[in-house]
Amino acid sequence: NQRSMRRIILILLLLLYIIKAVAPQTIVDYYIDPHGGDNSNGGLSNGDAFLDFAALTPALIMSTPHLRINLMDGVYNSTGNCFITLGPTTLYIIGTANAKFDCSEHPNSVISIGQALNIQLLDVNFYGVGVELQLAAMSSPGNIVIKDCIFKDYTAQDWMQLTVTSGTSVNTTSFTLSGSTFQNSNVYTAASVEQVNNVNITNCTFMDNIVEASSLMLFFVREATIDSIIVQRNAGKFVSGVLFEIVSKVIIRNSTFSYNKDAIMGVVSVLGSQRLNISDSLFQYNRGSLFSGALGLAGNIAAKVYNCRFLYNYVAGAGAGILSAENQNCLNTNHAHL
């Protein structure tokens, strides 16, 4: 009868939905060659590569929910490679040591990846170009991974070198940055991370940057772990070298902060965090313009600083080594050499 037939159809539709949900997602590889490619090619092999990102049209991306872009050796400096907007998709960009975006001749150039489910940038060199990464609004976990990349020589005094944000609940997203370098840029902020739950930054270097406002690194996140980074010889009008705001837990370990200057409130500042642990790190020759030269705390923070060295930090105002701006801060400086 009709009722039984409808029931069978509903069961079949449900089975198809389950099969689709659990089936492995197919990743489609495209190749870009800035010297030997052609946008009339199919782009599906290194011998049939596209010339630039302009070939990745919205229609192609919409039909390819899981996209992996393989960069061939060469310099990516055309307009089609310096002003890029991609999304929505799960996107992976795989570079090589000899593949380089060089957009210094294109002022305010930006590579923007938006409304993505997941993003990975591996071994990509960005010279003279800003990078914007945004996860889509979704209930399932999403993540952004940047590994072994270079961000260098970008001048945009009212914009960020790297922007990472999420359009979804902060509880479901993560950002991992490892083995990467930020160097010799003049920007509003070198790295801005917002609306992300877990942040992990490991073995990265921030060196010789000039920051016009805000901070060298700005985090509006829930939890952050910083391990084995170098922050050195950065200068500018920034509030702080590394600023954490509205977070519940910050861990910094095995890191070096040296020869940074002109921060208003320390090379590391934490505002509103509930818990801060800093261990086995070096703060030396940092110069503050108003408050702490090295570490500034404001808010109800349970802070522990141990096995750290604070050497020759200077500030024109108060707190050359550590400044705790509010009495409720619990500061334990076990084995910290001030």
Overview in brief:
The chain has 338 residues and is mainly β. The protein contains three helices and 35 strands.
Descriptive overview:
The chain starts with a helix and ends in a 6-residue tail after the last strand. Helix 2 (58-62) links the parallel strand 1 and strand 2 (66-71). The model is unreliable at 18-23 (pLDDT under 50). The chain has 338 residues and is mainly beta. The chain has 3 helices and 35 strands. Helices cover 9% and strands 50% of the residues.
Roughly what fraction of the amino acids lie in strands?
A: over 45%
- Low-pLDDT sequence parts: 18-23
Class from helix and strand fractions: mainly beta
Which overall shape is indicated by the principal axes computed on the Cα atoms? globular
What's the rounded overall pLDDT mean?
81
| Biggest sheet record | 22 strands, parallel
Using the CA coordinates, give the radius of gyration: 23 Å
Helical residue percent band: under 10%
Work out the number of β strands: 35
Number of helices: 3
